[in-house]
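Progress against Task 2.4 (sequence-to-structure conversion) is shown through the following example record, which the project officer requested during the mid-term review.
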Amino acid sequence: MISRRALLKLSACGPVAMAFPPIAVAQDQWGASEGYPTGWGPSGQPQSWDAYTGYRVGNYAGGLESMFTYRTIQAASQPSPLLSVPKKVSYSWNGARLSVEDYLKKWPVTGLIIARKGQVWSEDYRMGRTASDRFTSWSMAKSVTSLLLGIAMDQGLIKSLDDLPQDYVSSLKGTAHGQIKIRYLINMMSGIDVEYERDTVQINDSAMRGLENARAKNTDAEKVVRGWNKIAYAPNTHYSYSELSALTIGMVLRAVSKMSLAMFAQINLWQPMGAQADATWLTDAMGHEYNCVGFAACLRDWSRLAQLIAQQGEMQGRQVVSSAWIDGYYSFGPEDALVRFGLVEDGQGYKNFYWHPRPNGAWLMMNGKHGQRVLIDRATQTVLVQTAVVDGSDWQNELFALFDAAVAN
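Structure tokens generated for the chain above:
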């Protein structure tokens, strides 16, 4: 069976080549000659939010906000410090010593930040993007959802990860997702009969994207969760990546907080963290955040999120999310044994909507489709944020080499 990571290398229009010429040449592939358009694609062609490479740059940096409804998460009145302290980072790759500039010339990156402890060593934007753009995260939104879940736990709104969603959401009583422990949902161990490769198009169309020629209309993510009731495995026996697991957690958070995810994030995460700019979260037609994807923020605020995690949930003397919750990202007990490093997709680990890309557990990774990445090194508090327009295993390995060098710097 093709893995989710392999699937993300494909668009609806066919395979995306993984080798790129220098970016100055490659830009036409990404819509430069048309001014980086946004929307559902060329006139007369099947509508898609991500299949047409010439629309990705524009759509992934604000364009999706013109295609869907969304909620705004307002910035802090006083941003937390994030200072530009330029520092050269070089890395070894294929026998050559390369710079950040070399890396950016090679791959279709729209934005890149490398920082440590609130000091930005390197910050670059390509393909017409700027520091003021909001960059859509795709599945990195699941990691943001995880932070909100931790805050809800800290506040006593959710008593235990062993609780069931139906304990908090009356509309989930008796449904398959309502009867799965929260801890199994956030580790993608629900046992629900859902396969990423087989089912994601159906889920997206019904829950968020809408049908052809009726895009973003008549969608209801919560209805999809309630109606997906086939069981394939006992919980905690089989890893299967699912958008529905994150959407279920979103329902729980809205119920216990009695507010939208966007407002809960604004009050408890975004403003306490000291975000410098508004973020947005795409919603279905009912106004529910599509919290498996769709969170957008400027690159510097993505860096602040990474810094918050690197600093054990603390920012400027304020404990935004408990250190104990952050510690949980790195620890694996008996009930997490099947998602340890080497046992999930591409030989990685997975815990609480975060990826573990290294066997020693030193790094956490937020991972979004088409090259959206946040890397966090716990020991040195080094972070890297990348936004881009395509995926690729060779590319990710080179990104890891760059981050390795930054960590060692």
